[in-house]
Amino acid sequence: MVRSISKVQASPPVKSDRPIGKFATILLMIALCAPLGGYAHWLNAHYDYAATLAELTFFELFLAAILLLLPFVMLRLLRVNWQSER
Known about the structure:
The protein is mostly helical. Helices cover 53% and strands 0% of the residues. Keywords: Membrane, Transmembrane, Transmembrane helix.
């Protein structure tokens, strides 16, 4: 059996490694950190200034931890190079 060989070979898809820029990265980080800031503001209004972490429920602490990790997970999923000096 003879296979025909084409002179044109399939090339892999081109991946864009172009950085989005410092200003766009700063805006993205502010947008990704905004839910944590809003949640912290709500907790402050709900529990008052004298509250401690021991007064928070497990769900409130869990939600705060998730919102704290959100910017880093999204940067990883979006493949943003946020440590370009390394």
